[in-house]
Design goal:
Elements (H helix, E strand, L loop, with lengths): L2 H19 L9 E7 L7 H10 L5 E7 L15 H13 L9 E4 L3 E4 L3 H15 L4 E8 L2 E8 L7 E15 L9 E17 L5 E6 L5 E8 L5 E6 L2
């Protein structure tokens, strides 16, 4: 089997294992997979394609964050934001690492998977899925027109410093790349983050309720993450 077929088969096997083992849940908690990617990175398209498959797996929220440090190669990524590069660097500092790479996936703010490694990614998702269900917190996000009401409540001990964040994302775009390492390729991107911002700090001592403006038709998710950036304790879509 040639390499592209072999990697595609590995990705399919990994995702099938996730789908089959997905447990029934009484809430909407999601395992967050952040992909740091770039239109200018020749190693990224397989990881970008994997995000499309992950979007079909129950209980997983894949988010594509496009970084800007590939833009100098000759193709400016129109989805890239310096803030996403800063987020990736913050994860590296928190993990004691000095270098950042694309593609890189970070699962639930904890597990770092560099490169296209679907089996390692599937293992990390399974590990965090089990741990997530034990987190002592409830999180909900309810949309009413252009306002999202977010509520969080501690059901046990939590980190003393947590950040509530809202994420807006575009579920799909197709890009024809004209220059750089991917010149001539047409690449599909999934759950492209357009805005990621903190909306409140929380210590868990009292229930939290926040109303946040979320105008437009973009999808919206809410994350509760330990400061650092640390691990993601809970994540849900706004309904």
């Amino acid at each position: 089997m040639n390499r592209p077929l072999r990697t595609a088969a590995l990705a399919a096997a990994a995702l099938l294992s996730l789908a089959v083992s997905s447990p029934a849940r009484a809430d909407d908690r999601l395992v967050v997979v952040e992909l740091f990617t770039s239109q200018g990175c020749s190693s990224c398209p397989p990881a970008d394609a994997l995000m499309s498959e992950l979007a079909t797996v129950e209980g997983v929220l894949p988010l594509s964050l496009h970084v800007d440090y590939w833009d100098y190669i000759g193709w400016k990524d129109n989805f890239a934001q310096p803030a996403f590069t800063d987020r990736q660097r913050a994860y590296a500092r928190a993990a004691g690492k000095r270098t950042i790479y694309t593609p890189q996936m970070i699962v639930q703010g904890r597990d770092h998977v560099v490169g296209f490694k679907p089996m390692l990614l599937a293992d990390a998702i399974e590990r965090r899925r089990s741990a997530m269900l034990m987190e002592p917190v409830t999180l909900s996000a309810t949309r009413n027109g252009e306002t999202v009401t977010i509520e969080a409540r501690a059901t046990g001990d939590l980190p003393p410093h947590m950040i509530l964040q809202i994420v807006r994302f575009d579920d799909h775009e197709r890009v024809q790349i004209g220059r750089g390492e991917n010149a001539g390729r047409v690449v599909d991107y999934t759950n492209i983050v357009t805005d990621w911002k903190p909306v409140a700090e929380w210590d868990g001592r009292a229930p939290l309720q926040v109303d946040v403006e979320a105008a437009g038709d973009l999808d919206t998710a809410v994350l509760l993450q330990a400061a650092g950036p640390g691990h993601i304790l809970a994540a849900t879509r706004a309904h």
